[in-house]
Amino acid sequence: MSSASRWACECGCRAQHLNRLTVVCATLAAGVFLVLLGILSGLYDVGADRPHTAAARTLLAMLRDRSIEHRIADIVAPALDDPARVREGAEHYSAMCVDCHLAPGITVSEIRAGLMPRPPNLAQQPIDPRVAFWAIKHGIKASGMPAWGQSHDDDEIWNIVSFVRQLPHMTSDDYRAITAVEASEEHAGAQDEHGHGHEHERAHDQ
Predict the structure, then answer these.
(1) Which of 42, 52, 44 is nearest to 115 (CA)?
(2) Distances (CA, A) of 86 to 83, 124, 140, 164, 179
(3) How many whole angstroms separate alpha carbon 96 and alpha carbon 106?
(4) Distance in angstroms (rounded) separating the CA atoms of residues 175 and 123
(5) First and final C-alpha spacing in the chain
(6) Domains in the chain, ordered, with CATH?
(7) What distances in angstroms separate CA 116 from CA 52, 57, 110, 142, 188, one per listed residue?
């Protein structure tokens, strides 16, 4: 092949590469422009009583999953089969979580009905303990999931995770039994404290 032919061939290849690059850049620019246009126009309905579009739902789920996956790599779960952990977690779950995430025998709630995206039903959906710990501790933006780590220490959160692991294996009778026991023990503890308070007052008065 002559020098002129080689030069012409190289120029043609460069032109094709440049054309492809131009198309890719133009497509990306158009996509960014359309997203900005949609945001600035206010056309996208952010009301929680309207579901996300399929594209928005896919992008948000991908963002959530990748973000959590990136952050749980160094989390090491403690032993989660301790019955004491499960009982403590049941108390927290029944007080903090059941209205959104349901439980065996509890299939509807007023709060859950108004949330978008809909929280997972943890009575039916097993979850990686590390994912559960991270989500409970840090919450998830724009989902209604609060960051319970602001008011609970890691050990308390692991107790909740321990209980959540058991939920898919529980019947409605199991759930009622364990939460009733915890509620009864908590009530008894409160009565003891109240009684000790009165005894202290009587002793002080004497």
Answers:
(1) 52
(2) 5, 18, 24, 8, 10
(3) 14
(4) 10
(5) 115
(6) 80-202 (1.10.760.10)
(7) 8, 10, 13, 9, 38
Radius of gyration of the chain (CA): 28
Q: Is 0.90 topped by the overall pTM?
A: no
103 secondary structure, DSSP code:
B
Measured in whole angstroms, the distance separating CA 166 from the mean position of its chain's CA atoms is 18
DSSP secondary structure string for all residues of 25-67: HHHHHHHHHHHHHHHHHT-S---TTSPPPHHHHHHHHHHHHHH
- Reported as a single tens digit per residue, the pLDDT across 122-140 is 999 999 999 999 999 999 9
Half-sphere exposure of 153 (CA within 13 A, CB side): 1
pLDDT digits (tens, 9 = 90+) for 19-71: 888 888 888 888 788 778 877 888 889 899 999 999 889 999 999 999 999 99
Local structure of residue 120 (DSSP, 8 states): P
Q: Tell me if 182 sits within 8 A of 122, measured CB to CB.
A: no
Sole residue written with tokens 């321990």: 162
Q: How far does Cα 1 stand from its chain's mean position?
A: 63
